[in-house]
Write a structure and sequence with these properties.
The protein contains nine helices and no strands. It is mainly alpha-helical. Helix 1 runs antiparallel to helix 7, helix 3 packs antiparallel against helix 4 and helix 5 runs parallel beside helix 7. It is globular, with a radius of gyration of 22 Å.
């Protein structure tokens, strides 16, 4: 009798597995759609602020040191997010992704930080002359916010609230220092945040499928994401 009961329970559990997989897949698709929609909104907002509104006659104020005593500390804080420190931080985050065995973690971190930085440089070149330079995205602030967002992609659930909390405080502090010290304006911080938000949304959408890839590679280490994509396209 006991063996019959165990068999029935096993059959019931197996019968629920496809439904659970379908539910998880549906949830991933929904969350992916939301993230891609957020990325699209960020891109549209960036275009509106830097192109549409200036053409419509809207002018933005030039930057000035609201608190002159903060100019030097603000510049020092921004320089802390130069090329070398950012590369070291990215290397540290890739190590975290390796230790946590996140299949897409390394790519997501590099894509987010490098993509946001290159986009910032491209936007500054494209919008040069349309708006004051202080209204353009700031490269150092971009690096700061992008690193914080990248950390949220590879942090464990236990540390995620702390990463978001401390990261928000750090980003707000650096951004406020840039505005008060005269390195940027509120408009410049907004355009910076829009660029990072778009890249974070795209990278986090990819990370939604990291557990699926981890499970697949655990069953067969040779079954990588490239192989899975080839099967899907074939």
């Amino acid at each position: 009798m006991s063996s019959d009961t165990d068999s029935m329970e096993l059959i019931e559990l197996e019968s629920f597995e496809p439904e659970s997989d379908d539910a998880n897949a549906s949830q991933r698709r929904r969350r992916t759609t939301i993230r891609l929609g957020a990325a699209a909104i960020a891109v549209v907002a960036l275009i509106v602020v830097l192109a549409v509104l200036p053409i419509a006659g809207v002018t933005y104020p030039y930057s000035r040191a609201i608190v002159p005593s903060l100019s030097d500390p603000s510049d020092a804080a921004l320089k802390a997010f130069g090329l070398t420190p950012v590369l070291l931080a990215v290397a540290g985050l890739t190590v975290v992704a390796l230790v946590r065995a996140l299949p897409y973690g390394i790519g997501a971190v590099i894509t987010l930080v490098v993509g946001a930085s290159l986009t910032t440089a491209a936007v500054r070149t494209w919008a040069d002359g349309l708006v004051p330079a202080s209204a353009l995205p700031n490269g150092n602030v971009t690096a700061c916010i992008a690193l914080i967002c990248a950390a949220t992609l590879v942090a464990s659930r236990a540390f995620l609230p702390m990463v978001w909390g401390l990261g928000t405080v750090a980003a707000a502090t650096v951004s406020a220092g840039a505005v008060l010290g005269g390195s940027a304006t509120v408009v410049g911080i907004f355009t910076t945040a829009a660029i990072v938000a778009a890249w974070w949304a795209g990278s986090s959408a990819v990370m939604l499928y990291s557990p699926v890839a981890a499970e697949r590679e655990a069953q067969n280490p040779l079954d990588t994401a490239a192989m899975a994509l080839k099967r899907r396209l074939g």
